[in-house]
Each structure stands twice: as structure tokens, then as C-alpha cells.
Model the fold of this input.
Amino acid sequence: MGDAYKLWFELEKEADEELFVQCGGLYFGDKDDPQVTLTEQALIDTNLPYERLTPKQVREKHPAFHLRPNDVALYQKDSGFLRATRCVQANIRLAKKHGAIVHENTKVQEVTTKENQTFVRTTLGNEEEFDRVIVTAGPWMSTLFKQLNLPLRPTRQQIVYLNIEDHPNYFQPDGTFPVWIDSTENLYGFPSDGQITGVKLAYHHPGTLITDLDAERAPVDENYIEEVQSYARKRFPNLSSQVTYSQTCVYTNTPNEDFIIDRASDQSNVFLVSGCSGHGFKFTVLLGKIISSMATDDPSYERDLTRFKLSSF
Ligand SMILES: Cc1cc2nc3c(=O)[nH]c(=O)nc-3n(C[C@H](O)[C@H](O)[C@H](O)COP(=O)(O)OP(=O)(O)OC[C@H]3O[C@@H](n4cnc5c(N)ncnc54)[C@H](O)[C@@H]3O)c2cc1C
Done:
């Protein structure tokens, strides 16, 4: 994460726009929740500054949060959120500036290797030849590389925005309302982002398995919305039950939530990144550096990638 932070700041500087909003982060849960203990230990081991807060201290500092009496909270002021669409757009814009050719709305149909050259066939109707190819097609990797039997399980995820009933100042990303994770109930959320009315809340646990990735997705389930509303009534009483926005999307899960970063076992010129398991966006700048270093035999981002190899799943 330390390396990823540096790269986001570099990208932000080159893109000359705000991509990361530093609003602080609050990780909380029951004081006996083993995940809270593990998270605190990880912060200590990596020497990252944090504060340990009681529910009362959380209320004083971040008045929108009403934690359970037995909760403990870990606050990190350096945390925040990335404006994901802007990050993707900035990457594309700058890649083009550096000479990349981008074919938007073009589907890759096949990636094959013959005599050490790799061919990419697309819906543009032609086949192009490359020395090295990097593929990052999310859950669709399983369709493109059927023969590899990738350990990917795409699940349907849902998110909800609830409107603010009163005290809108409690929900601002100026340090008053941090990004948060409730470890015990497995929900997370964001402050008011200035784009969509209200604030985002969602469950992190994997949803139902998606069997047809290209099928139209059903809208967010009524009972999911009710669960989120019921949670918000207890933890954020200044929110209203009015849903201002909701959406479904896909987590590309591996069995242990580690990412896949590897060379295709049957095509040595083809490099794969996938299985970001619902927590990969923040690492994408670093994953890009690592995989492009691998593909170009450049040692600058060499890492021990043993746990991310296909053979380790
Ligand atoms: C609701 C939700 C919340 C999340 N929250 C967080 C979070 O808080 N923090 C975090 O770090 N991460 C989060 N994530 C995870 C993060 O979004 C993913 O880890 C990240 O988007 C994975 O990137 P990817 O490029 O591997 O795959 P994707 O984002 O799935 O992108 C794959 C791309 O490949 C394209 N593609 C597929 N097949 C083809 C083909 N044949 N030809 C051409 N193009 C193709 C697709 O159109 C798509 O654009 C969240 C994800 C969801 C769904």
C-alpha cells in the first residue's frame, strides 16, 4: 500500500487533478473481533500511525457515527477514497499522451500464441501481432482463457446511497466523516462525495454467483435495501431512509481474496492480472507497474510474487 500511495500521488500530479480525497479512515468492530486485532497488529507491524478510539471518542470526533458499546475503532488520518472514474480516465488520457493507442468499445475475442508471437483478434475484424500482451479483463478472463480454468468466482455486489436527514456537516470529507469499515457486520461506506446526493453504504461479503457475465443485471434487491436502511438507523441516525442511488456490480473473487499476477502457463508472452476480489482498485497503479515490468523484463518493480501465482491457488 505504501508503494501504491506514492504512485497515486505521482499520477495525481501528472494528471493535474484531484484523484485521492484524504478524509481519514475508521475501521471498527467488536473489541473481541479477531479481524480488528489483526488489523491493529498489521498497522503496528508496518509502522503506520493510527489512533485507537472508544465509541465515545468516535462520537466526539465524528458525530455521525453511533458505534456499539463494545466496539473499538482504529482511526487513520492518511486514509481516504479515490475518485475511481477520474483515475481510470486520467490513466487513459496520460497513456495516450505517452503514445498508447486506445481502441475503446472494442472486444478482444481471442489471444493466441504461435511461434513465439502473440496474436490478438478483436471485433475490429482484424488480428494484430504483438511481442508481449498484458490482459486485465476482470471476470471475463475466464472466458478469454477457458483452458486455464482460472480460480475466479464472479459475484453480484450491491451498493446503496442514503440521503442525509439532518446535520449535513457531519457527513463531509473534511475529516468529519471518514471512510469506514464495520468489520463485525462487514459493511463499509464513504462520506458525501460531492457527486451523488447522500452517502454510500454497502456490504462487503460476496453476493450471489454470476453465471452469465453478459446478461442484463437485475436492480438492487428490496431486502438488501431494507438491511442497509436498518443498519443506518442504528449506526447513523442522521441519515434518512430515502435511497438516492443504487447499483449492482461485480467482484472477481479468488478463493483466498489474493490477486492473480502471473504469466499464462500455456503462453509465455501473455501476462495476466485479475481476481482483485473487491479490494483491488487501490492497488491498480502498483499492479500496472508490476505487470508491465514483468512483461518488459524491467527489474524496477520486481517483487516476490509467489502468493499471486496461479499455481498457489
Ligand atoms: C461495488 C464495488 C465496490 C468496490 N470497492 C472497492 C474499494 O473500496 N476499494 C478497492 O480497492 N476496490 C474496490 N472494488 C474493487 C475494484 O473495483 C476492482 O478490484 C477493480 O475494478 C478490478 O479491476 P480490473 O481491471 O481487474 O477489472 P474490471 O474493473 O472488472 O475491468 C475489466 C475490464 O475489462 C474489460 N473487458 C472484459 N473483457 C474484455 C474483452 N474481451 N475485450 C476487451 N475488454 C474487455 C471490461 O469491459 C472492463 O472494463 C470494488 C468493486 C465493486 C464492484
Notes: The pocket of flavin-adenine dinucleotide is lined by residues 107-108, 136-138, 140, 144, 157, 159, 202, 249-251, 274, 276, 278-282 (CB under 6 Å). Helices lie at 2-15, 34-45, 55-61, 84-97, 141-144, 222-235, 284-295.
